[in-house]
Amino acid sequence: MLGTMVGNPPRRSAKLALRLALLLGLLVAVVALSGCSDKDDGTAPATGDQLPALHLTDDTTELLLTWMDERGGTHTGLSLAEVPEGSKALVRVTTKEAGHDSLFYVADLTAKKADGSYQVMTMRRAEWEAGIEKRRTAWRAKHAPPPKPPATSTASGQRAAPVGDLQVIIYGAPWCKPCHQATAYLKRRGIPHVEYDVDKEPARNEEMLGKLKRAGKRHGSIPVIDVGGIILQGYSQAALARAIEKATRGATHL
Questions:
Q1: Which of 66, 71, 193, 250 could form a disulfide with 168 if both were Cys (CB 3.0 to 4.6 A apart)?
Q2: What angle do CA 64, 98, 73 make, to 5 degrees?
Q3: What confidence category does residue 42 fall into, taking pLDDT thresholds of 50, 70 and 90?
Q4: DSSP three-state, residue 69
Q5: Residue 178 bridge partners (DSSP)
Q6: SS (H, E, C) 84-95
Q7: 158 has a pLDDT exceeding 70
């Protein structure tokens, strides 16, 4: 047999080339199919009208949760405990096996069934996105700023834009120079604001840390400034001015 293999190298080379060609063709086909699936924007029909039943409890793990706030902003978390009270009625649930395409799970976390699980149903992505837009539209209509009066000049000569009923929260400390700079800028702009000393007010410190976590930021320095839901860390006049402008239009992030 060894003599046959040695004596016929062209035949072995031809077989090897054929196998490589078939393998390459299969790989190209898989990549092409994957590329097509990536182009699904969620508006195409779902691959099926049902998903596998999901038994959702407080102990269920390996989940990705998405919920809406009252402004129509979306937030994500990995455990049911992270979902705030006002957003528990409609929470998108993605598991490792299902819920990745245009049909996914939504759960009502406001009440448990007799067996301790939560009510879970399915929803198409188009319905979910329509719900987000509906909340955003309602928020903008409810909090639309009044007609803008003529801009006035501040003591520094800057043109101060009106900001409606926006209020800014500064989490800082008396020894923090950037905190005082942020306060001085808001005073020049005539923007209502409150200041909390996180060294002396533990509850406010926890409140600040919670906002940083939800914004995907780590605590490292103060001030932490909450501009209508837009969270800034440190003081930059340009960043603060930009956040004020966006917050008055109903945005929740820069």
A1: 193
A2: 40
A3: very low
A4: coil
A5: none
A6: CHHHCCCEEEEC
A7: no
In-domain check, residue 82: yes
- Please answer whether residues 168 and 192 qualify as being in contact, where contact means their C-beta atoms are separated by less than 8 angstroms: yes
Which amino acid, one-letter code, is at 161? A
The answer to whether residues 145 and 164 touch, using CB atoms and an 8 Å cutoff, is yes
Q: What is the mean pLDDT of the chain?
A: 78
Residue 34 has pLDDT above 50, yes or no: no
The per-residue pLDDT for range 196-254, each reduced to its tens digit, is 999 999 999 999 999 999 988 888 789 999 998 899 999 999 999 999 988 887 655 55
SS3 211: helix
Q: In sequence order, what are the beta bridge partners of 224?
A: 171, 233
Beta bridge partners of 254: none
Domain count, the chain: 2
Q: H or E segment at 132?
A: helix 125-142
Q: How far is CA 126 from CA 46, 108, 193, in A?
A: 11, 19, 39
Claim to verify: residue 131 and residue 178 sit in the same structural domain: no
Is 36 contained in some domain?
no
Rounded CA-CA distance 131/56 in Å is 23
Gap between the Cα atoms of 171 and 193, Å rounded? 11
Relative to beta strand 230-233, strand 152-153 is unpaired
